[in-house]
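pipeline/complex-builder :: batch 7 item 3
reading input block
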Amino acid sequence: MALILELALQGLQMVLVVAIAPLVLGITRKVRAHLLRRIGPPVLQPYRDIWKLMHKEAVLAHNASWIYRVAPYCIFAVTWVAAALIPTYATGLLFSWSADLIAIVALLGTARFALALAGMDVGTAFGGIGSSREMMIASLAEPAMLLIVFTVALVAGTTQLSAIATIFTTAPVGLRVSLGLALFALMFVGIAENARIPIDNPATHLELTMVHEAMVLEYSGRHLAMIEAAAALKLVLYFSLIACLFVPFGMATGDKTAGAIALGAAVYLAKILVLALLLPIGETSVAKMRVFRYPIFLGGAFAAAALAVFLLFVSRGF
Amino acid sequence: MGRAPVSSLAFDIAHLLAGGMLVLSFVLLYQDRVTAVLNVFALQATALALSVAWQSVVQNAPHLIVTATVALAVKGFIIPAALHRIVRRLDVHREIEQVIGGGPTMLAGLGLVALSILLVQPVGERAGIIVREDLAFALAVVLLGLLMMITRRNAVTQIVGFMSLENGLVLAATGAKGMPLVVEISVAFSILIAFIVFGVFVFRIRERFDTVDVSALDSFRGERRDHI
Amino acid sequence: MIAPVDLLLVIPAVAIPVLALVTSYRLGAALNVLACALTCAAGVALLFGERVRSELLIVDDFNIFFIVLTTFVGFTTSIFSATYIAHELEIGRITPVFLRFYHAMFQAMLGAMNVALLANNIGLMWVGVEVATLSTVMMVGIYRTPEAIEAAWKYFILGSVGIGLAFFGTILIYLTAQEVLGEGLSAMAWDLLAQNAGRFDPRLMSLAFVFLLVGYGTKMGLAPFHAWLPDAHAEGPTPISAVLSGLLLNVALYALLRFKMVLAANPSTLNVGAIMMALGLISLIFAAFMLYRRRDIKRLFAYSSIEHMGIATFAFGIGGPLANFAGLLHMTMHSLTKSAIFFAVGHIAQVKGTQRIADMGGLSVTHPVLATGLALGVLAIAGLPPFGIFASEFMLVSSTFARQPVLALLLIVGLLVAFGALILRLQEIVFGPPKGPKDPVKASYLPLFIHLALVLVAGLWLPGEVVRWFRAVATLLG
Amino acid sequence: MAVTIGLWCVAALFAVSLLTLVRGPFGTAFVYGATLVISLMALALGLTELIGARVSTVALPLGLPILDGAHFRIDALTAFFLTVVNLGGATTSLYAIGYGRHEEAPMRVLPFYPAFLAAMNLVVLADDAFVFLLSWELMSLASWAIVLAHHRDPANMRAAYIYLVMASFGTLALLLAFGLLAGADGGYAFAAMRAAGPAPLAAGLAVILVLVGAGSKAGLVPLHVWLPLAHPAAPSHVSALLSGVMTKVGVYGFVRVVFDLIGAPTPWSGLVVLTLGGITATLGVLYALMQHDLKRLLAYHTVENIGIIFIGLGLALAFRANGMDVAAALALTAALFHVFNHSVFKSLLFFGAGAVLNATGERDMERLGGLIHRMPQTAIVFLIGCMAISALPPLNGFVSEWLTFQAILVSPQLPQWGLKLAVPAVGALLALSAALAAACFVKAFGVTFLGRPRTPAAANASEVDGFSLAAMFILAGLCVVAGVLPGFVIDALAPVAKALAGDVMPKQVGVPWMSIVPIGESRSSYNGLIILAFLICLGTLTALAIHRFATRATRRSAIWDCGFPLDAPQTQYTSSSFAMPIRRVFGTVVFGVHEVVDMPRPGETRAGHFAVRVIDPAWRFGYGPLARAVASLSLRLNHFQFLTIRQYLTLVFCGLILLLIVVAAWR
C-alpha cells in the first residue's frame, strides 16, 4: 500500500514536469514578446505546436539511419528521467536516490550526445556545425557545473538532491556568499545549456551563429515534436534545479500528508513561474554573442564557481 | 733527489750510468736531425749495456751479461745501422718535424723527471738504495721515450723513442735484484723492435704514424667523414 | 697419463707447427677444429680433476671458469672459422699460404691465452698476454689491404707501448714482493702475492697498478687507450674479431683483476676502485655515443665491446660481493654473446658482400635465420631479457643505485644511449625493404645458436657450482 | 595450488609461441584458438581467486643466481589484474580468429602474440624484482616485434624504435626504484621489500621513480609519446591488447610497488600523482580531439583514461597518507574499476577500428563516413563503446568516473592545504576531460559511421566476419552489464581495497534496488539499473503512444539542408572542422597549432588550401632537443675515430701522466 502511494507520488512528479514544460516555454515567449513591444503567441501555443507536429508525417532524408529516428525519443526520455529525478514539490520520493546531481548532469550529457549524433547523421554542413559547437559549449560548461556541485556538496555534505533540499530547509545553513556565487554560475550554465541568448537564439533560423537549431534542422513531424518537448523539459529541469538547490522552501520534507503535498506543489509552481518571468528579462537585456566569445562567458561561470569553492574553504577553514 | 751515501762505490757507478742514460734521453729529445738521433741512441744503448753489465757484477748474476751483450749488439749496432739504411732508402726527411718545439719539449721532459722522482722518492723505506735511484732514472727514461714518440712526426724517430722507452724498462728490470725471466724478456723486446723496423721497411710505412693529410688517413679508417 | 693442465698448453704447442706445415685447406681446418676440441675437452676435464698449484701454473676458482670459457669459445670459433675461411678462399681474399699461417697463429693465440690464464707467475702471464696480442696482430693484417695493414700497424704500436708499460708495472710488483718474499719465482707467484700483500709497500703497489692498468687497459680497449680496437675488429677476419672481443679482452681484464686482488688484500693502498670506476664510465659513455655514427657493422660491435668492457670495469671498480658477481657474470655473458654476434655478422657480411650497414637492410626478408640470430644477439647485448646480460646489469645497476646514486645515473645514461644506438642499427639491418644479394648462405649456424642458447639459459638459471665460484672470487676481489 | 595453474597457463602460451616459431605457421585459427582457450582458463583462475581472495605463493629454482629462486604469488590484486589481462586476451584471441586471416605476413605476428600474452600474465604473477622486470621487458620486446609486423613502412619502424627505447627507459627507472627498495645487499624478493619498509626519503624517491617507470608504460604525460605512434602501428587486435591491457599492466606495476611494497605513503606523493593524472587526462583528450586517424585518436584516448586512473590512485594515496582508509578504499576502487572498464571498452573500440580498417582499408576518418549503412552491427557496438568511454550513464564508464567524483567530494576533509586546493582543480579537469571525451567520440562516431561516405572505399564497405562480431558484442554486453550492475564489481574489488587501502567500501550487493552507495546512504547513491529501466520504458512508451494515437507516416526525400542542399559529400563536416572550435579555444595555449590558409582571391580559379599542423609539445620541448643533443654530441666525439697513431699515443701518454699525478698527489 505504502509502496503504491510512493509510486503514485513519484509518478505525479514525472507527469507534473512534463505537463508544465510547454507552458513554461509559452510563458517565457509571451513575456519576451511583451518586453519587445509585441503581443506574441498565446501562452498555450507550445502545446498546439507539439500536438500539430505529432500528427504530421515525418520526412526523412534518403540516407538517414536508424539513429536519426531513435534519437528524438531517446533524447526526450533521458531528459524526462533527469527532470523527474529532481525534487519538485517533495523530497525523498521513491526513486529520488537513484541518481544524484552528478548523475543528472551526466544524463543531460547523454541527451546531448544523442542530439549531436542526430545532427551529424544526414551529413550536412549545418548539422556538423551545430553538433561541433554544441559539444564545445558543453565541454566549457561542464567544469563550471562540477565546481557548482562541489560547492553545494561542501555545504550540504552530499550530492543527493533531496538530501540537499532537506538539509537546506531544515538545518541552519544561513546566507552564504559561496551559494550566491554558485547560483550565479548555475544560471550562466543553464543559459548556455538551454541555448538561450546570449549563447544561442532559440527563435532563429538561417543564421550561422545558431547551434541548437542547426542540429535539428533536418527534423520534422513527430521527431521534431519530441525534440521540442525535450528542449522545454530541459528548461523546466534547470528551473526546478535552481529552485531545489537555492530556494528549497515549502517542499514537503516530512511525511507526505495531502496538505504538505499540495502546499509543496503550489510553492513549486510559483517558483517556476517567477523564474520563467525572470529569464526573458535577462535575455532581452543582452545581445547575442559571437561564437568565440563563449569561452569568456562560461569562463565567468567557472571563475564564479571556483571562487565559491575557495571562499567556502576560507570560511569553513576545513 | 735524496743524497746517497758517498761510501757505496756500487751506487756511484750505477748512478753514473743510469744518470748518463737519462741525460742521453734528453739529448735525444733535443736532436732535430735523424742521423744525429740514431747516433745518440746507439750511445744510450751502449750506456745501458754497461749499466746492465755492472748490475750483473754487483748482484753477481752472470746471466745478465747476456742481456748486456744483446743490448749492445742489437741496439748499439745492428738496428741503428738498419735505420740508417732505411733513412737512405726511403729518403725520410732528414729534418724531423716536431709537434711542439724544442724548448717546451725540454720543459715537459724536466717535468717528467720531477714527477718520476716524486713518485719513487717515498718508496725507499725498505727498498735498497740502488733500487730506488735506478727506479727513478728508469721511470724517467721510460716517460721521456714516450714523450719523444708523441712529439716527433717522423717514423724513424718514433721507433727510436720506443726503443729508448724499452731501454728504460730493461734498466729497471736489471735493477730489480734477482728478477726471473729478465734475460728472456729483454731478448723478446729486441725481437719486437726488430719487427717494428721490419714493418717500417717492408710496408713502406713512412709517415703513416702521423700524416698531415687527413683525407689520406680516413681512407685507412674504413669509414670516411662523408658518411657522417 | 699427462695432466689436463699440461694438455692445455701442449696441444696448441703441437698444433702450431703441424698446421703451419699442412698444405691442404680442408685438412688444416679440420685439424684446427680437432685441436680446439681437444683443448676444450682438456679444459672441461679440469673441472673434474683436482686443483693444481705449482711454481708456474695454478688452477683455482678464479681461472678454472675462464679456462673452460676460453677453450669453449675457441672451439666454437674454430668451427665458424672453417666455413668462413672456406668462403674467403673461394672469393680469393686470402691465399692457401696465408691460410696455413692463419691456422698456426690461431693456435698460437689460443695457447698463449691458456698460458696467461693458467700462469701462477706474473711474468709468465705477461708473456702469455703479449704473445696472444702479437699473434692477433699478425692475423689482423692478414688481408694485406691498406686498411688492414693500417689497422694492424696501429694495433701493433699501441700494443707494444702497452706491453712496455705493463712490464714496468710487473717489475714494480716484483720489487715490492721481493722485499718480503725474497728473490726468485716465489716473489712473482699469484697465490703468495695475494697471501702476503698485507706486508708489501702500498705506495709502490699503487704505482705499479697504475702502469698495469694503462698497460692491460690498452689490451682491454678501455677509453682513452682503445684506439686500436675498432679498426682491428673491422679489418681483420671475422673469426679473429670474435676471439678478440670474446676472449682477448677478457684475458686482459682477468690479468688486471688478479692484480686488483693483490691490492685488495692490502687496505692501505691507493683506492684503485675509484680509478677503475672512472675509466669504466668514460669507456661506457664514450663508446655509447660513438655507436651512433658507425656505418661499418663490425666496427659498430667493436665499439659495443668497449662499452661492455667499461661496464665490467666499473662493476669491479665499485666492488662489493654483488657488483663483483655482476662483473664476472657480465664478462662471461659478453664474451659468449659478442662472439655469437660476430659469427652472425661474418656470414651476413659474406652474403651481402659488404660491411656497410647501409647496404644490408631487410635481412629478415632475405635471410630469416641469420636475421633471427643477429637480432637475438643484439637484443642480448643491449641488455634485454631473458638473456644473461640483463641479469648482470640488473644486479649492477640496482646495487650501484643503492650505494652511489649519482654514478648509477651516469651508468644508466650510458646504457640507455648505447641501447638506442644498437636498436637503431638493428632495425636498419634486420627490417625495412630488403637490399643486396638474396642468394642462400653456406653457414654453420651451430656455433651461433649454441652461444645464444647458453646466454639464454644463463639469463634464467646458473649451475650452483658456477655461482659458488663467482661468489668466492667476488669476495676475494673485495 | 593456484599459482602453479597460472604458471602452467604461461608455460602453455610460451609453448604455443615456440611451436609456431619452429614449425612455421599452423594457420591463424590454431594459434588464436589455443590462446583463446588458455586465456579463458587463466581468466577463470583469476576470477575464482578474486572471489575466494586467497593468497598463494610458489618459488621455482630459476631466476637471479644470487636469489633463492624465482618467486610467484597470487593475491587479490594479482587476481584482479589476471582477470583484466585474460579477459582482454580471450576476447582479442576470439576477434583475431577472424581478423587475423587478413594479415599478409602472419609469421611476423603469430609467434609473438602468445609470448606477449604470457609475458603480461607473468608480470602480474611475479613476486620478486628480477622476475617482474624480466617479464616486464619481455612484454615490451614481444609487442615491439609485433609493432614491426608491417616493417616496410618507415613510420612503423620509427614507432617501434621509439617504443622500445622508451620501454627500456622505463625499465631502468623501475630498476633504480627496486635498487632503492632492495638495498645494497640485494633483497630482491617482494616479501623482503615489504618487510624492509624504506626510509621516508628513499620511499619518496622510489615513488617518483616508479611513477616514471610504470608511467612510461602506462602512458603518463609527458612519457606518452610512444603510445600514439606504436599502438596504431600494430595490427588492430594487438593494438587492442597494447592499449586496453598492456597499459593496465603498467598501472599494476605502479599499484604493486607504491601501495604494496613501499607502503606508508606521504601526502605530497599523492599530490604529485593526482596532478600528473589530471594533466594527463586533459592533454590526452585534447590531443585525441586533434587526430583524424581513427586508431591514433583511440591511442590518445588511452592516455586520457590512464590520467583518470591515476587521479583515483593519487587520491587513494592522499587519503591513505592521512589515515582516511574508507575514502582511500573508495578512490582505489574507483581507479581499479576504471582499469576494468577501460580495458573493456578500449578493446571494443580498437576492434571496431580494426573492422573498419578491414572493410575499407582506411584509418583516416576524413576518407570514411556513412558506414552505419554498410556495417550495422559494427556500428551498434562501436556506438556502445563510444558512449561508455564518454562516461555517459547508464554505461560502465560513467560509474567509475562517478566513483572518482565521489572520492573527490570527500577531499575537503584532507588536512593539507595543497591537497585541499589541488583536488577541486583536478576535479574540474576531470569534468573537462569527460566533456571533451564526449565531443571527441561524437566526432569519431559521427564522422566515421554517420553522414555520407566520402570515398568509394567507404561506400563499398561490407560487414566483418562472425568471430570479430562475437568478440565485439561480448565486450559491448560487458559495458552495459558493468554499467547497470556495478555493485558486483565493487564487491569483487573489496579484497584488493582491504589489502592495499586498509579498509573497504560498504557492501553493495543487498542495497535495495541494487543501487550503489560509495560511503553511506546519506552522501549519495546511483542506480544505473533503474535509470536504464526508466529510459527504456519512457522511450518505448512515448514512441508507441505516438505511433498508435498520432501518426506513424514517414516519407523519404532529399536532404533539405535549409533549402539549398549541396550533395557533394565533401561539404560535410570533417573531423578537423568538427574539432576546429575546440582547437581555437585551447589550441594556442595547449599545443602549437599551426594553421595555413591559402584562399584564392575572388575571380581566381585555383583551388584553395587549408592545412593544420598540431605538434605535441612533448616533442617540441622534450624529446626533439634531447635527440638533437645526442646527435651533435656523437658527432663531436666521432672525431676520435679519425686521429693519427701519434695522437692516440698522446692520449695514452696523457692518461698515464694523469694517473701518475694522482698517485703522486695521494699521500
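note: Residues 64-89 of chain B form the longest helix (26 residues).
queue -> next item
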